[in-house]
């Protein structure tokens, strides 16, 4: 499986022979440098550029071009080489952009000898840089790995080579030897991209955050990034993005993609920062170990000075990483401030003014907001947690921490789902065996938004689950037969949401089996589950209910960092979608829903 790398992430190479293909959309000059454990080259003989000398085991293209191919036989490089850097630079050719921020982001793919793709990396977030260290192939415990760097240099290739250890004279001589043919293609085949994104946003996305949240954290080894580039100056900072600038046929789809892009941007920006901090800590440890290992510098003023210098370098790396992160987060905050007010009711928080002008929708939305997500580096920067509809999994509000608040969250979620669908296309049922949620359910019961009173007692639970189980059976049979779905008279054709409070109180062996059946088979035929439960309360049933919990998307009534994304494995903090304290927005919307349904029912008579 191909690994799509982000800045700072690493990935093992399956062998020592690798091909690197570069697609830049504009002419670029390829290069390779061979460095020691710190990435420092021994001299100009350790650098290969078009027109310069060759390196053992390395083959590069002969000149600038929009498509480049490089090959590396890592067994053939000198034993002293610990790091092989893949370089890209913009040539000084008329018509070719002078900075990477003005052209499409370069894309690099690593291929095994048989042609299978190992990993890929799109170098994003570039601005005034005209040369970059794109990738690093490095030794680690006898094996080779690849690390996505994307470190840019506004001073171009000479500055890059000086940073790797060449003298200014050697760096200028190597770059002066570069010649570009007059017919180098100047126009990019891909339109220029704005530099207001950290990662790319053109890849297929999973089916909403629900799919991301239950995926296990990434199993890739923790990335160790390079020194991050200096953030762009205020003069090059792009303007705030415009709401809905993502791809999509409708504004709703564009806004959905915009929000998902913000989620990916934040995930990758934080991943790069954390990797940079880890790298700085690792480097500090290595330098301190080197001081202790040398008897000449182990004690005395020289040792203390060496340790101070190592700590100063570590602090500088962390400060630079934080500066880059702050710039990325400032861009995301500006984008959030523009996008959030433009969201339609299904995507908007309950505090949004759009709910005050809510009207019955004519079409179901493509997604619905289940809360907010944030990371500890910037907790106030919250990204809407949008999940595609119809729901593919049931929802579980874990009441272990706050039982009363858990019911409030369930009510807010059910109200949002009901209000997001056209009248007559979504119905809510409630199981409250002991009647303990009567107060929290008042917005539903008082408004008339429920078509029937909450089911109470064992008999009420059994009757409601029997009806919903029968509905699932009938629809499944019709679908399996390949014919039209014909429900018997009295069965509601709308999608159904079953809200269960105080589970498993009021359930017996039969109704427990029916609930598991609804959780597994219901979503396919329009029956969805919203469970309010403390798993400890069901412990006495043992393995009978063990398969139930993983099949549901766990949410919490209080902020909790239990959700993991599938890209970099961040522990995201989930914020439940509660209305502001004292707000009457949920009861008011439910009253409007009930009134619209009454009008709809009268029109059908």
Fold blueprint:
Elements: E1 3-5, E2 10-12, E3 17-35, E4 47-48, E5 58-59, E6 65-73, E7 83-89, E8 107-111, E9 117-122, E10 131-140, E11 143-153, H1 156-163, H2 168-176, H3 209-213, H4 251-293, H5 301-339, E12 367-374, E13 383-388, E14 394-398, H6 403-419, E15 426-431, H7 442-447, H8 457-481, E16 495-503, H9 509-521, E17 527-533, E18 552-555, E19 560-564, E20 571-575, H10 585-604
Parallel strand pairs: 1-9, 14-17, 14-18, 15-16, 16-17
Antiparallel strand pairs: 2-11, 3-4, 3-6, 3-7, 3-8, 5-6, 7-10, 8-9, 10-11, 12-13, 12-20, 19-20
Question: Any idea of the CATH class of the domain at 385-557 and 575-604?
Answer: Alpha Beta
* Rough outline: elongated
How many strands in all?
20
CATH architecture of the domain at 385-557 and 575-604: 3-Layer(aba) Sandwich
Labels describing this entry:
alpha+beta; Rossmann fold; 5-stranded parallel beta sheet; elongated
């Amino acid at each position: 499986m191909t690994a799509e790398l982000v800045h700072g992430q690493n990935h093992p190479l399956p062998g020592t022979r690798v091909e690197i293909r570069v697609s830049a959309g504009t002419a670029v000059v390829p290069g390779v440098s061979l460095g020691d454990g710190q990435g420092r080259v021994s001299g100009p003989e350790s650098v290969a550029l078009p027109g310069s000398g060759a390196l053992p085991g390395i083959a590069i293209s002969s000149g600038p071009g929009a498509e480049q191919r490089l090959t590396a036989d890592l067994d053939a490089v000198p034993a002293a080489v610990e790091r092989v850097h893949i370089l890209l630079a913009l040539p000084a050719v008329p018509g070719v952009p002078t900075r990477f921020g003005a052209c499409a982001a370069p894309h690099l793919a690593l291929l095994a000898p048989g042609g299978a793709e190992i990993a890929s990396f799109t170098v994003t977030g570039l601005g005034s840089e005209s040369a970059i260290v794109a990738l690093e192939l490095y030794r680690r415990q006898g094996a080779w790995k690849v690390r996505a760097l994307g470190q840019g240099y506004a001073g171009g290739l000479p500055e890059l080579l000086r940073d790797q250890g060449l003298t200014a004279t050697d760096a200028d001589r190597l770059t002066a030897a570069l010649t570009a043919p007059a017919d180098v293609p100047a126009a990019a085949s891909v339109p220029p991209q704005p530099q207001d994104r950290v990662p790319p946003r053109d890849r297929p996305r999973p089916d909403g955050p629900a799919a991301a949240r239950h995926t296990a954290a990434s199993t890739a080894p923790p990335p160790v990034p390079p020194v991050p580039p200096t953030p762009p100056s205020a003069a090059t900072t792009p303007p705030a993005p415009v709401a809905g600038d993502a791809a999509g046929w409708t504004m709703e789809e564009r806004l959905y993609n915009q929000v998902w892009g913000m989620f990916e941007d934040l995930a990758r920006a934080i991943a790069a920062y954390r990797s940079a901090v880890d790298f700085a800590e690792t480097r500090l440890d290595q330098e301190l170990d080197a001081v202790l290992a040398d008897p000449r510098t182990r004690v005395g003023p020289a040792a203390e000075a060496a340790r101070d210098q190592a700590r100063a370098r570590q602090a500088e790396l962390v400060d630079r990483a934080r500066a880059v992160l702050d710039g990325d987060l400032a861009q995301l905050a500006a984008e959030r401030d523009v996008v959030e007010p433009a969201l339609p009711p299904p995507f908007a928080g309950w505090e949004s003014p759009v709910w005050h002008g809510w009207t019955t929708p004519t079409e179901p939305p493509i997604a619905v907001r289940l809360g907010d997500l944030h990371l500890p580096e910037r907790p106030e920067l919250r990204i809407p947690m949008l999940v595609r509809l119809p729901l593919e999994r049931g929802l579980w509000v874990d009441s272990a921490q706050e039982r009363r608040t858990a019911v409030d969250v369930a009510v807010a979620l059910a109200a949002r789902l009901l209000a997001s669908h056209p009248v007559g296309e979504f119905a809510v049922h409630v199981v409250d065996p002991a009647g303990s949620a009567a107060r929290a359910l008042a917005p539903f019961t008082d408004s008339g938004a429920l078509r029937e009173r909450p089911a109470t007692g064992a008999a009420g639970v059994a009757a409601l689950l029997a009806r919903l189980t029968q509905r699932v059976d009938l629809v499944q049979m019709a679908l399996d037969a390949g014919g039209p779905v014909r429900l018997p008279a009295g069965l509601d054709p709308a999608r159904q949401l079953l809200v269960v409070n105080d589970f498993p109180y009021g359930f017996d062996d039969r109704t427990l089996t029916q609930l598991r059946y609804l959780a597994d088979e219901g979503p396919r035929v329009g029956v969805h589950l919203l469970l309010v439960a403390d798993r400890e309360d069901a412990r006495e049933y043992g393995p009978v209910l063990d398969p139930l919990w993983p099949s549901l998307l766990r949410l919490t009534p209080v902020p909790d960092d239990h959700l993991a994304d599938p890209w970099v494995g961040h522990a995201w903090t989930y914020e439940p979608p509660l209305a502001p304290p004292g707000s009457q927005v949920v009861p008011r919307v439910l009253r409007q829903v009930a009134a619209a349904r009454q009008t709809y029912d009268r029109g059908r008579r």
